[in-house]
């Protein structure tokens, strides 16, 4: 298997906000878009993040990429490990997300997605898997 096989998206300019995950080829409904990203998510208490200086680069990592679940926040084991899926934005107002999130944080195409389309997800659809 070559490194590009099974890759559906790359980071690119977003029409929604900053950068986003952009489909590099057509994606069929039901595809697990980031199936090859099997890195663990670690869960930290929100109070540990609140102790970081406001507006610090360190705190921004958690604000920009963290998965909030009650008093916890989920993130990669190290922020150097941010993969393409962590760059999915929420859809523009009035639009539906084209990805759905499973209980174990897999992102599944909710509909057929065209090449060049930005991948979007509702952040509220993330919940902590027990």
Q: Helix and strand layout, with pairings?
A:
Blueprint: E1 9-13, E2 19-23, E3 41-45, H1 46-50, H2 57-65, E4 67-69, E5 72-76, E6 99-101, E7 107-109, E8 118-119
Antiparallel strand pairs: 1-2, 2-8, 3-5, 4-5, 6-7
Please tell me about this protein's structure.
With 130 residues, the protein is α+β, with helices and mostly antiparallel strands. The chain is built from two helices and eight strands, in the order βββααβββββ. The N and C termini lie far apart (33 Å).
- How many β strands by DSSP? 8
User: Which spans have pLDDT < 50 for at least 5 consecutive residues?
Assistant: none
Instruction: Report on the biggest sheet.
Output: 3 strands, antiparallel
Tell me the overall shape. globular
Q: Note the total helix count.
A: 2
Query: What's the alpha carbon Rg, rounded to whole Å?
Result: 15 Å
String of helices and strands: EEEHHEEEEE
Q: Distance between termini?
A: 33 Å
Proportion of beta-strand residues: 15-25%
**Averaged pLDDT, please?**
92
């Amino acid at each position: 298997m070559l490194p590009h096989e099974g890759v559906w998206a790359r980071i690119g300019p977003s029409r929604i906000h900053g950068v986003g995950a952009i489909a590099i080829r057509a994606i069929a409904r039901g595809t697990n878009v980031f199936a090859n990203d099997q890195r663990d998510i670690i869960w930290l208490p929100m109070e540990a993040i609140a102790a970081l200086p406001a507006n610090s680069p360190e705190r921004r990592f958690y604000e920009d990429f963290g998965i909030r679940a009650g008093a916890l926040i989920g993130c990669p084991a190290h922020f150097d490990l941010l993969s393409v899926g962590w760059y999915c934005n929420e859809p523009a107002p009035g639009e539906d997300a084209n990805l759905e999130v499973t209980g174990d944080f897999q992102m599944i195409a909710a509909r057929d997605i065209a090449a060049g389309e930005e991948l979007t997800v509702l952040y509220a659809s993330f919940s902590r898997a027990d």
